Amino acid sequence: MLDLQVIDDPAAATIALEPVRSRLLAELGAPASAATLAARVGLPRQKVTYHLNALEAHGLVRLAQERKWGGLTERLLVATAASYVVSPGALGPAAAHPHRAIDRLSASYLIALGARVVREVADLVRRATGTGKRLATLAVDTEVRFRSAADRAAFSHELTEAITNLVSKYHDESAPGGRAHRLVIVAHPLPQQTGPKEPS
Question: Cystine design at 31: which of 78, 126, 144, 174 (Cβ 3.0–4.6 Å)?
Answer without folding.
Answer: 78
